[in-house]
């Protein structure tokens, strides 16, 4: 989808990578996984697993939203990702005695399909094509995390914040005449944990961008008026042309 925004006396063409296209192979894999699932309701505050727990199952998101976090030795928490419907939550390396490297906390109630690792291993060993699709799925998850860490470590706090807003536009963005409205509420504390900054630093940076006409913040929702400016701040070389499977929350 392409949108032309008139801002600051010029026209800016914005190519949105909205949508989350699923390949035929991935669709077949997820269809096959349905037969392995036990459905479970999840409520806000529940943990699917804690950091350090042994990996016994993966969780297929039917609905709701889950926050993945990691805590350092000083007890400081950083948000790695937000998982939503159609995402697969958990780690699977095919190694016996594997442990989770992060925590999964429910932030929006819903339903998950619980897939026991032992059942998944049997299914994949009997379906070579689906095993290949599963490797691709896990590889995509690793690339998402890799690029997020790159943005966090290489582009400074402002660049990391700009990257979060671009990803939020792709995951939750709604086109409006004024710009791209991020429909999910992202409070400053959550954003701070996403980029390893303080809430005050996030507030100050957003206020500066508001004065420059880049964003607008109202009633807890963020409107991105100048996404091209955010691309420049975060050093996005692809110009938002990367796959929404990668450039996402």
TrEMBL record:
Keywords: Activator, DNA-binding, Transcription, Transcription regulation. The keyword Transcription regulation applies. Residues 155-228 form the HTH crp-type domain. It comes from the Bacteria. Residues 37-93 form the Cyclic nucleotide-binding domain. InterPro entries: cNMP-bd_dom, cNMP-bd_dom_sf, Env_Response_Regulators, HTH_CRP, RmlC-like_jellyroll, WH-like_DNA-bd_sf, WH_DNA-bd_sf. The keyword Transcription regulation applies. Transmembrane segments: none annotated. PROSITE patterns: CNMP_BINDING_3 (PS50042), HTH_CRP_2 (PS51063). This is Helix-turn-helix domain-containing protein. The lineage of its organism: Bacteria, Bacillati, Bacillota, Bacilli, Bacillales.
